[in-house]
């Protein structure tokens, strides 16, 4: 069975500082990995995804993530935080064959201090 | 191009009642999945519909049922509501048949259900 663990339910950074949100996964097959962002009272928006190929993937709003198979990790980073980045971030995994069944982590709430 | 639309956006029910939530997928998508997101939690997979049939189901009781129509829109029905059913219900659409299917989902803004 697949699972996702997000380390840290709350992360607080200063504006301009590095953002690092941690995600570890468990999967018996090569995984497809996703990061979604959820702003208050809204649905989920895809930030970036890893399916195959290059292990460093770039997404929207300056975010990127690196797939590390040996560490079963897919951490999300952004070099410089902006106030507008404050939101809930979810890491998710699928096996790519189930066409829509994503397993989500518990989420990490990112706060950005001025 | 309209994205995934859900209705209603908010609703309040009492225990024991029944509720129906509706979803229209993104144009060109043929698969609809439903997720339940309890407060402070990640979304949990309820079920997925493709070609008007339930294709996969998560760990939810039979009180949760659904339907997909020929135009790919979908409904989620919950019977005998419990307090614990209070949550944001998210609909997501995708293409099952695309050769480039990567499992990416497009989400609606959700229907927030409060059970009193």
For the sheet with most strands of chain B, the description reads: 7 strands, mixed
Anisotropy-based shape of chain A: globular
Mean pLDDT of chain A: 92
Q: What string gives the helices and strands of chain A in order?
A: EEEEEEEEEEE
Q: Most extensive interface: pair and counts?
A: A-B, 26 and 28 residues
- Count of DSSP E strands of chain B? 11
- Helical segment tally of chain A? 0
By oligomeric state, this entry counts as heterodimer
Instruction: Detail the poorly predicted runs of chain A.
Output: none
Order of helices and strands of chain B: EEEEEEEEEEE
Overall structural class of chain A, as computed from helix and strand content, comes to mainly beta
Q: Give the CA-based shape of chain B.
A: globular
Give me the Rg of chain A, rounded: 13 Å
Spans of chain B of at least 5 consecutive residues whose pLDDT stays below 50 are none
What is the tally of beta strands of chain A? 11
Distance between the termini of chain A: 41 Å
- Helical fraction of chain A equals under 10%
Share in β-strands of chain A? over 45%
Assign a percent range to the helix content of chain B: under 10%
Radius of gyration of chain B: 14 Å
Can you put this structure into words, describing what you see?
The complex is a heterodimer of chains A (114) and B (116). Chain A is mainly beta and 114 residues long. Chain A is built from no helices and eleven strands. Chain A is globular. Chain B is mostly beta strands. In chain B, the strands form two sheets. In chain B, strands 2, 4, 5, 6, 9, 10 and 11 form a seven-stranded mixed sheet that branches. In chain B, a hairpin with a 6-residue loop joins strand 4 and strand 5. Chain B starts with a strand and ends with a strand. The chains are: A mainly beta (114), B mainly beta (116). The A-B interface holds A 4, 32, 34, 36, 41-46, 49, 51, 90, 92, 94, 96, 98-107 and B 4, 31, 33, 40-45, 48, 50, 55-56, 58, 90, 92, 94, 96, 101-110.
């Amino acid at each position: 069975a697949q699972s996702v663990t997000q380390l840290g339910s709350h992360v607080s950074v200063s504006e301009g500082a590095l953002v690092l949100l941690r995600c570890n996964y468990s999967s018996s097959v090569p995984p497809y990995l996703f990061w979604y962002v959820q702003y208050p009272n809204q649905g989920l928006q895809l930030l970036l995804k890893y399916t195959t190929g290059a292990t460093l993937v770039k997404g929207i709003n300056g975010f990127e993530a690196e797939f590390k198979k040996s560490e079963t990790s897919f951490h999300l980073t952004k070099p410089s935080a902006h106030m507008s980045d404050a939101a809930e971030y979810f890491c998710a995994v699928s096996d790519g064959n189930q066409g829509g069944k994503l397993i989500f982590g518990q989420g990490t709430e990112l706060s950005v201090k001025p | 191009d309209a994205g995934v639309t859900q209705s209603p956006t908010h609703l309040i029910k009492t225990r024991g009642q029944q509720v129906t939530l509706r979803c229209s997928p993104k144009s060109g998508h043929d698969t609809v999945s439903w997720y339940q997101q309890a407060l402070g939690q990640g979304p949990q997979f309820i079920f997925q519909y493709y070609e008007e049939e339930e294709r996969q189901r998560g760990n939810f009781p039979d009180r949760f049922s659904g339907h997909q129509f020929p135009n790919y829109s979908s409904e989620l029905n919950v019977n005998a509501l419990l307090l614990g059913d209070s949550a944001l219900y998210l609909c997501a659409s995708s293409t099952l048949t695309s050769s480039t299917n990567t499992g990416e989902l497009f989400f609606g803004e959700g229907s927030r259900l409060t059970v009193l």
